[in-house]
Every structure is written in C-alpha cells, then in structure tokens.
Design a protein that fits this description.
With about 130 residues, this protein is of the alpha+beta class. About 30% of the residues lie in helices and about 15% in strands.
Length: about 130
C-alpha cells in the first residue's frame, strides 16, 4: 500500500489587533492674580501634557483660558485669559515642539467660571482628544 500523505498543517490567521484606546488627558494650569506666566509647579503640568502629546502624536489639545470674575474688569480679564492660554500654547510649541495644528486655543475672560472658588478661575484648562 502507498504511504499516507503527510497531514497539511493548519495555519490559524493572526487575530486582529485590538484598537488602541487613548484616554483623554486633562490638566488645569493655575495662575497667580494678574499673571500670564505660571510658576514652576504649574509649568510642570505643561511638561506632563507635552509628554502625553509626544507619546500619542495623533492627539490634539484644546486650551481654554479663564480669568476670575472677582477681580479686574471684563477688558482686563479677557486680556489675562488670552495671555494665559497663549502662554501654555507657546510652551507646547516652542519648548516641546508640538505642532501648532494640534493645538486649539480659546479664551473666555470672566464670562465663564469653571470653578466655584473664585481664585481657581485664573486658569488654562487643557483637554486632549
């Protein structure tokens, strides 16, 4: 009798890789009254944000600047919130080489107050997507 043919190995297809789910990253960079430059502990938050954005090059960030309603006036607070958001955006671009097309900025002055505590509204809120 003829020898039995060798069995053909069955090749299982590779499973599809699971989609990568990127958790959004949020940080709040707080400022002293009447300031548009953050102190070292707050600036460290921008460093964390930049590291996240470097790890996930497809993510973008929205930076929203605010000023507290309890001090200043609408004109001053608009200028402060714009300066605060530009400060964070400039750090991301110039210190950490994050492309400008990944950074979206808006500033609300004192028209919105994200925090109940007045002084906490001297802030740039950073949220990735």
């Amino acid at each position: 009798p003829a020898p039995a043919p060798e069995p053909v190995p069955v090749v299982e297809p590779e499973p599809e890789p699971a989609p990568v789910v990127i958790e959004p990253f949020q940080c709040n960079v707080f400022f002293k009254i009447n300031k548009t430059v953050a102190e070292a502990p707050e600036r460290a938050k921008v460093t964390e944000l930049a590291a996240y954005m470097q790890k996930y090059p497809e993510c973008k960030v929205t930076l929203t600047g605010y000023a507290d309603k309890g001090t200043g006036n609408p004109r001053i607070n608009s200028r402060l919130s714009e300066g605060r958001v530009n400060y964070v955006a400039d750090l991301l671009r110039n210190e950490y080489n994050i492309d400008a097309d990944r950074i979206f900025t808006e500033f609300k002055g004192d028209t919105e107050q994200p925090f109940a505590d007045n002084d906490s509204n001297r802030v740039t809120v950073c949220l990735t997507k």
